[in-house]
Amino acid sequence: MNVPMPRSRGSQIYLLLLVAVTVGLVLVVTGPWRTGLAVIGAAFVVSSLARVFVPADHVGMLRVRGKAFDVVWTMLL
User: Fold this and answer.
1) Which residue from 73, 68, 11, 13 is spatially nearest to 43, judged by alpha carbons?
2) pTM for the full model?
3) Are 70 and 63 spatial neighbours (Cβ–Cβ below 8 Å)?
4) pLDDT one-digit tens code per residue, 15-55
5) Rg of the Cα trace of the chain?
């Protein structure tokens, strides 16, 4: 199956965030729940930092509201 990768850097980071959260949830369900929560938390911190450093024309799906809202919201999650 040939699935095209997202074009913008932010959308690629968002895809990696979804993969990391999925891995974290699998870890939570299968046993090492602390490790799973750490993976999920790290994914949100990385996505928040990416929202700060990725240029505005490349944020893609990382952009929900303004930059400040997005950064604060993902750090609080």
Assistant:
1) 13
2) 0.79
3) yes
4) 898 999 999 999 999 989 999 999 999 999 988 888 888 87
5) 13
